[in-house]
Amino acid sequence: MALVIEDGSIVANPESYADVAYADAYFLARNNAAWAALSVSPVNLKEVALRKGFDYLGAVYRDLWAGSRVNETQQADWPRENVYRDKYVLVANNIVPEEVKRANCELALKSTVQEVLTDQERLAIREKVGPLEVEYAPYGTTLVSYVAVANMLSPYLTGGGSGTKRLIRA
Known about the structure:
This protein is α+β, with helices and mostly antiparallel strands. Helices cover 31% and strands 14% of the residues. β5 and β6 form a beta hairpin.
């Protein structure tokens, strides 16, 4: 099954913001051998990973993106309208920004060594081994957050791009 790419034209059933060729070039430029080593037969693991990265972006950032979707029926979060990068530069409403594509790639690579979207558990802040006792943080979870990805996307998040960085706790 071919990977369906959202390129800014509002495609049906999108699965990624970046295609395999884009991800290959992105990781080649960064001398990342782990991506190059992924099998593409019989199952294209690069496509599977890009789908997982896309799913993470939708699940974690859906309510954090600046602006709004161009079309209320579009299935992906991008393209968007009324998004200003660096406070003054209006982002075209028929593209997917490079940083979003790169974030999709970074999350794809991370998904090859660990699940990027997992069920959330409460964060244990204290454990006692003999007669077992566990204390949980009232608001903490064990969901992993990816700071480099959040920083990459910050110009496109609500409150981002104006000299401040939005802290995202996932």
